[in-house]
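Try it yourself: sequence plus LXCWX6NK, in.
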Amino acid sequence: MTDASDCRRPLDYRERARAALPAHVWDYIEGGAGDELTVAWNSAAFDRVSIVPRTMVDVSACDLSCELFGARYATPLGVAPMAYHQIAHPEGELATARGAGAAGALCVVSIFASARLEDIAAARSGAEASGPLWFQLYWLRRREVMLDLAARAGAAGYRALVVTADTPRLGDRRRDRHNGWAVPAGVRAVNLDAAVMASAHRRRPGASALAGHAEEAFDPSATWHDLEWLVARAPLPVLVKGILDPADAQLAVDHGAAGVIVSNHGGRQVDGAISALRALPPVVDAVAGRVPVLLDGGVRRGRDAFVALALGATAVLIGRPVLWALAAAGADGVAHQLRLYRDELENLLALAGRPRVRELGRDAVAHG
Ligand SMILES: Cc1cc2nc3c(=O)[nH]c(=O)nc-3n(C[C@H](O)[C@H](O)[C@H](O)COP(=O)(O)O)c2cc1C
Ligand SMILES: CCCCCCC(=O)C(=O)O
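Structure, out:
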């Protein structure tokens, strides 16, 4: 286990996680679709944006809070939904939720969490600062399962639902095919029926068991009418994740989405898809303030979060770097990782003379 204090920037957790994890688990977490072009583009896009500092501004107190669905969130940083945290650490999502809670950060729990959603909520509420939880759904053929999970999440105190729209089937993850990847037997998507999940554990040489499971369980025929159906029955606001086209953002809002998440699934679905950051400004313009717009994909520094917030994101989600920290140092690692992001962001707000996250605008950045 790594001493979290060894890591001075979010990227420092990457090599520690690689050393801690079996190669096939590392490949599942780190890999993307195809030649992994979009994985690389997601983070490279941030490097092409400069910050334009202001001077002679009172920055003696910086305000990182943001507002989502009428509530004040302490930071605009959160954990993206990711399946099976127990592949990274035996305490899985319980540790992630405790770590995110200690950092006061939002945590979005995947439908494929390896801990019961009620237990995650209980673990989070014991954390020192605590932070909000949202629950993510895929479009399952068995719609009644989606509604059951939505009701359970509402009852357990989750504050929003996220429905992922970019996964009619799983992207072509070549590393997983090469490894004959299957979810390890001791790790289970315990919020879902064990018999239904069996195919996710069935190893076949040259194939990804997860891709096989997704083909069985995911509904590739879902359209905007299904979103209306879900919104009408959900006990919580529903955000749509996986939006890259401004026309889709508009359709999502027109069909009842309470928010959209600009995301290409961390480059794991369409290889060569536009980077999340490049897709953000047109989506923000199309939504025109009607609902919040969040972003994930390639956020590897507090600076990257600053750039996304300046380009119109209300909040920013972090994916793989949270699993790196979880693998390296458990709940303490997750809390430390999120604090590294937060502290970098806070420092930049002060140095750039832009002390309030909610007032960041496009004038804070320049292209090139
Ligand atoms: C190991 C792993 C599992 C994931 N599982 C899910 C999931 O269950 N549901 C989902 O909507 N997105 C899932 N994603 C995508 C993330 O929510 C997010 O879009 C992506 O990781 C953000 O990019 P980043 O990792 O570059 O920060 C997963 C990503 C990874 C790396
Ligand atoms: C067991 C079905 C698929 C889990 C998919 C998790 C995911 O979204 C990922 O990117 O991996």
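One thing you can check immediately is this: The first strand starts at residue 49 and ends at 51.
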